[in-house]
Amino acid sequence: MAGATTGTPAAVRAAGAVDGERRQLTGLAYRLLGSVTEAEDAVQEAYARWYAMSAGRRQAVERPGAWLSTVVARICLDVLGSARVRCERYVGAWLPEPLPGRTEWEPGPGDPADRVALDESVTMAFLVVLESMTPAERVAFVLHDVFRYPFGEIAGIVGRTPAACRRLASSARGRVRTAHTLPPPEAEQAVLVRHFKEAWEAKDIAALVGLLDPAATMTADGGGLVGAALRPVEGGERIAAYLIHLADRAPGLTLLERTVNGRPGLVARHGGATVTVAAFGLADGRVTGIWAVRNPDKLRPWNDRTAPTAPTPPTGTGTDFGTGTRTRTGTRTRTPPE
To answer: What is the average pLDDT across 82-86?
Structure first.
């Protein structure tokens, strides 16, 4: 993009306005793909296409931000579709990449109602539901219900009629409604996560069981690179026992309270590096879901360039939430639903 801002003052201002769309575009792409890296790649590709056009063609675009958003959405749709065709191989459960704290491309000041919708749309629980959708459903729903795109514009992106896009969004909305539970106020969430952390650190299994919903589920994502339970652990008592077992096997593990995808969560650090990021589903004063991301490729935003790599214990077959134990397993096919 070097040289894209040279020329008249008007051209410089126009280029600055276009570059200012990056935060919005990356936020859109992340919600569509669930991957920070893929979102950034999609946005970079959209800018490459923009600057590959002649100056005359760029000047003819009345709404550059809308043009870029359309291109990003189409790129994301292609990525989702190609993953569907490839049946991307992945070891164990696949979870979206967790977001640390506030990011530069999260929504800025604006209408409070829109801000709430955007904040809700980046929670881990919401992103997990999006993973259950077809690519077309996901794109139609996110563009319309989250980013307020009219169905006429969405139709041009997904290659369907406006009526078909309306049906896609409605179907997706039903999935979200079925899975959604009203979370407690953020202050209560933080207290509940803190109590959970303290009970885990104290290895108090009775306290953990009391904090977990009897039907709670814990899902871990190691990607085959580090140890993680290959299937969800179901039931409050089983999760509590599993966590106590992990605490016994992870000396030197430090648990920190951090914001994960806009909600109170926990970060596990070992040897100076983040090795696990956990997001929580909370309802009625209890933990209903835990999503633990351990895949180191998905934790890069949580580790700065100077952070040392966590020491890796000897290779084995265990499934460890807290340390770098590798697991030897076969691969699972990650196939998006029909």
So the answer is: 60
State the Cα–Cα distance between residues 153 and 26, nearest whole angstrom.
Answer: 19
Cβ atoms 75, 28 nearer than 8 A: no
Query: Which phi and psi (to 5°) does residue 219 adopt?
Result: -120, 130
Sheet with 254-260: list strands edge to edge. Answer: 233-234, 212-221, 286-293, 273-283, 263-270, 254-260
The residue assigned the tokens 């977001």 is 99
Q: What's CA 280's distance to the chain center, in Å?
A: 13
- CA 253, distance to chain mean position in Å, is 24
Does the pLDDT value for residue 333 go beyond 90?
Answer: no
Per-residue pLDDT averaged across 156-178, rounded?
Answer: 95
What pLDDT, on a 0 to 100 scale, did the predictor assign at position 336? 39
- Give 206's Cβ-side CA count (13 Å radius): 0
**Got the DSSP string for 191-238?**
HHHHHHHHHHHTT-HHHHHHHEEEEEEEEEE-TTTS---SS-EESHHH
pLDDT of residue 141: 96
Does position 86 have pLDDT exceeding 60, yes or no? no
Beta-carbon-side half-sphere exposure of residue 48 (alpha carbons within 13 Å): 7
What pLDDT is recorded for position 13? 52
Distance in angstroms (rounded) separating the CA atoms of residues 77 and 135? 6
Half-sphere exposure at residue 327, Cβ-oriented, CA atoms within 13 angstroms:
23
Q: Cα–chain-centroid distance for residue 51?
A: 29
Asked whether the predicted pLDDT for residue 104 surpasses 60, the reply is: no
Task: Please say if the pLDDT value at position 42 is more than 70.
Answer: yes
Beta bridge partners of 259: 264
Q: Rounded to two decimals, what is the model's pTM?
A: 0.81
Residues in contact with 181: Cβ distance below 8 Å, sequence separation at least 6, in sequence order? 281, 283, 288
User: What is the DSSP annotation of 54-115?
Assistant: -HHHHHH-S-HHHHHHHHHHHHHHHHHHHHHHHT-EESS---PPPPBSS-TTS--S--HHHH
Q: What is the pLDDT of residue 328?
A: 31
Residues 6 or more apart whose Cβ sits within 8 Å of residue 293: 95, 97, 98, 220, 221, 276, 277, 278, 279, 299
